[in-house]
Specification:
The chain is an alpha+beta fold. It folds into three domains: 43 residues, no CATH class; 121 residues, no CATH class; 58 residues, no CATH class. 23% of the residues lie in helices and 14% in strands. It is built from nine helices and ten strands. Strands 1-2 form a two-stranded antiparallel ribbon. A two-stranded antiparallel sheet has the order 3-4. Strands 5-6 form a two-stranded antiparallel sheet. A hairpin with an 8-residue loop joins strand 9 and strand 10. Helix 3 crosses helix 4. The protein is globular and about 60 Å long. The two termini are 21 Å apart. The relative contact order is 0.14.
Length: 282
């Protein structure tokens, strides 16, 4: 969620960077002919084609070179927003700045003033609640000014009492909670390098403004839903809250829950290899 008053840009429950790693351009002309004329196993020459010509029988023109891609890697950082990571990235539509200082702020009901975003140099952030309801309140119909309100309304000791010793290092220079913090390349040089070397999309919107489980379901299936019959996808209805589902899943084995098809099933059916790596304690 964006801790500023800007009118647009990304509301990312997940900050996703996709890197397409293409194979080295070392193919011989014969290799190219084999790929474009009839697939990877076809001969270089084709009886219906003039000598030296290549014919795209399988790959549409707009996908030319598609077979050179060996791997597509999605790096997903959960619970981060665009501005939290790239709000001050040069040229990006991020946090409005003037003279190196933010020109926007969020009302803070505890401090009784409107506090600006600040450079957060810590690597561990508490942030705020990020369910679907919390997202709606924080975004506030596009005003983007409800982030501290949501935090104070939720169970957050450091938001309610900024003088607690346990909160040292978790607050900004004006006592604002770290939901107003942003990082630079000093803390996350790897992400800024990705943006410099590949692409940075500063107007990509999250498919689901909600918490972990619905967001991850969107990642692999473009949907989050509850199903009355786990074997009938037509019994499923969109659900961005999915209350109680995590508790059921954490008990170990459980009956089927989801009835619709995800991309991993489609990849397996198409004999396309895939892997999904998850961090510890997830």
């Amino acid at each position: 969620m964006r801790p500023d008053g800007h009118r647009t840009t990304s509301l990312l429950a997940l900050t996703t960077i996709a890197l397409a790693l293409a194979a080295a351009c070392t193919s011989s002309p014969a290799d190219v002919a084999r790929e474009t004329a009839g697939g990877p196993t076809a001969e270089a020459s084709d009886a219906t084609a003039p000598t030296g010509a290549t014919v795209d029988l399988e790959v549409p023109r707009k996908l030319k070179g598609f077979r050179n891609i060996e791997h597509v890697v999605f790096i997903v950082q959960e619970n981060r927003s665009f501005d939290h990571y790239f709000g001050t990235f040069p040229g990006a539509d991020g946090i409005p700045m003037r003279g190196g200082e933010p020109t926007v702020c969020n009302p803070d009901p505890v401090l009784g003033e409107c506090v600006p975003p600040y450079h957060d140099e810590t690597l561990v952030d508490h942030g705020g609640p990020h369910g679907h309801y919390h997202s709606q309140v924080a975004v506030n119909d596009g005003a983007m000014d409800g982030f501290i309100d949501v935090l104070v309304a939720g169970p957050s000791d450091c938001a309610d009492d900024r003088l607690l010793a346990a909160c040292d290092g978790m607050l900004g220079p004006q006592g604002q909670p770290d939901v107003m913090g942003y990082h630079t390349d000093r803390e996350i040089p790897n992400y800024w390098r990705y943006a410099e070397e590949f692409v940075l999309q500063d107007r990509m919107f999250a498919p689901a403004d909600s918490w972990t489980l619905p967001s991850h379901l969107f990642l692999v299936s473009a949907w989050a839903a509850s199903c009355s019959d786990p074997h009938d996808p037509m019994s499923c209805e969109s659900d961005l809250e999915l209350e109680g589902v995590t508790d059921l899943q954490r008990r170990g084995e459980h009956p089927p829950i989801y009835a619709w098809t995800d991309i991993t099933y489609l990849l397996t059916e198409a004999d396309v290899s895939w892997a999904y790596y998850v961090g510890d304690d997830t």
